[in-house]
Amino acid sequence: MSGGFARPRTVEEAVEALADEDALPIAGGVAVALLTNLGLVSGRRLVALGGIPGLRGVVRGADGATLELGAATPHARLAEDRTLIDELPVAAGMFGHIGNVRVRNWGTVGGNLALAEPAQDPPVLLSALGAEVVIERSGGSRQLPVAELGDGPMSTVLEPGELITRVVVPVLAADERSAYLKFLPVTADDYATVSAAVRLRVDGAGDDAVITQARIVCGAVGPVPVDCTVAAELLVGRAIGDEERYAGVADAVATAVSPKSDHRGDAGYKREMAGVMVRRAVDRALASGTVSGGAR
Q: Which of 93, 169, 238, 239 counts the most CB atoms within 10 A of its CB?
């Protein structure tokens, strides 16, 4: 079947409609419009998600340690959500800096993740935070780390008949810090040239405090967000007042990433900037003592 339009009223109806390999889910329509303009999709049967209750908003997880974001929630609504601002301001700040006002008002978190564009903001930060997507399908559901959702540029591991319904994000513990930064040398609504997200656990106070856990994820420098595990391991055990705390980190980041040259910069420039942005993100997280939002 090709072409047409479906308006399911339940997740089950949506999953059934999406079992058709020609079907394409649509919420805000930003990802669908982009794919259409690129000539990557045409003549597809659209499955509208707007009439399905429960796919929008932010709720606390039953365990009290997570927040659940409805997949059809627009970025602008997430940026202004009081629960998200209070519990995960780094995420609220990131959503408030995506693209331009039109994209933020129409684009949704689920659509953004399903698009799997490697220069987008949510996959990078949500991967660093250890977020997972809840995927509904016929006969049940499965939960998958955001970091494992994309398997290439604009490609995911989602199968026909599967639908992202929620994004489950762990809240930060009292001893954790996080930050997300992106480098935008031209305009604020452009894709990032390089982006970096960090999540740190810190033991102690002042300059003697020690980083005990770290995760670093870079965006726009590979086919999917890059988990810089070696660079993160180098930070562990170092005091935040140690002038040598970044020794080897930039080199480890440069080894992990695999950027391509384009109009935003050549590969060597992006490789170097990835290390710079990681250092700035770590500094931002440590200096603030709290989480912080995306910025130029």
A: 169
